[in-house]
Amino acid sequence: MKKLKVLWLSALSCNGNTHAFFNYPNLEYFLENFEFIYHPVIDSEYSLEDIVSKEIQCDILLVEGSVSKEFTRADVPILKIIKKYAKKVRKIVSVGTCASYGGIFKNGAYKDVTGLFFDEEKEIDILQEFRYKAINISGCPVHPDILVNTLFAIKQELKLKLDNLLRPKEYYAYSIHNGCTRNEYFEYKVDNHKFGELEGCMFYEHGCQAPFTHGSCNKILWNEVNSKTRAGLPCMGCTEPSFPRENLFSTKKNMGIPQELPLGVNKRTYLTLAGITKAFTIERLQKKLIDD
């Protein structure tokens, strides 16, 4: 079976996606199907200097981290290296939220920090000519299953349906709220008052972004065990262009109503549902919180 040749470039990055990738349980099988011509952490056939000075055959370009015209690798602007290989490869995959939208490094020392194809929700022209090859896999970090499954879909030449932010709908057509084990608490507005507790919803007081964040965190669990909301932490919205936001653990409200409502729910509908919910007192849901 022919291996696809993969180039993994690290731009402005904490390498979080690399370390998440190392948690993929079937890494040996992955490496039977893909070959890294270069990876910043894994031993590979070529050095970064080879990648810069030569033209190595490559099928998929993976970029981790934000990009800036000022940022260099091997004394060469990272954008020049990316454009060089963007012409050659079958697909360009932005690995993580920084590569997708700019992420946390937008607030750093470098100027004009963006994602490869988006600056927040606005298209940019850094790689506009290669947009037809682009796939964004946002997340901080990306779940290794989502990354690997996307690469296998490319290998098998499957047609991936993408959303308006170039993310595979297979993984980003849902909200994080979908599959959350706290949905019943959300429905009856039973709030959690302490991180790490198993009971209560964190949307109403603690800034949980799950109802308006796209992703599969509660469908494809980390280490096949857990997610933030299952562990008792609010979703931080890390798959969205607005990440990171300020005041992560508080819910901004206007006259007691959350400023940002769940996807597809307008204010009138929300107020109607909230009014109905107030008519119910579910002792089973309230008891543990009251006992604590």
TrEMBL record:
[4Fe-4S] cluster 2 binds at H177, C180, C201, C208. The keyword RNA-binding does not apply. GO terms for cellular component: [Ni-Fe] hydrogenase complex; cell envelope; ferredoxin hydrogenase complex; membrane. Residues 172-246 form the Cytochrome-c3 hydrogenase C-terminal domain. It is found in: Cell envelope. Its main location: other. It holds the Pfam family NiFe_hyd_SSU_C. GO terms for biological process: anaerobic respiration. The keyword Iron-sulfur applies. InterPro entries: Cytochrome-c3_hydrogenase_C (IPR027394), NADH_UbQ_OxRdtase-like_20kDa (IPR006137), NiFe-Hase_small_C_sf (IPR037148), NiFe_Hase_small_N_sf (IPR037024), NiFe_hydrogenase_ssu (IPR001821). It comes from the Bacteria. Residues 14-153 form the NADH:ubiquinone oxidoreductase-like 20kDa subunit domain. Its cofactor is [4Fe-4S] cluster. GO terms for molecular function: 3 iron, 4 sulfur cluster binding; 4 iron, 4 sulfur cluster binding; electron transfer activity; ferredoxin hydrogenase activity; metal ion binding. Keywords: 3Fe-4S, 4Fe-4S, Iron, Iron-sulfur, Metal-binding, Oxidoreductase, Signal. [4Fe-4S] cluster 1 binds at C14, C98, C140. [3Fe-4S] cluster binds at C217, C235, C238. Belongs to the [NiFe]/[NiFeSe] hydrogenase small subunit family. Heterodimer of a large and a small subunit. This is Hydrogenase. It comes from Sulfurimonas lithotrophica.
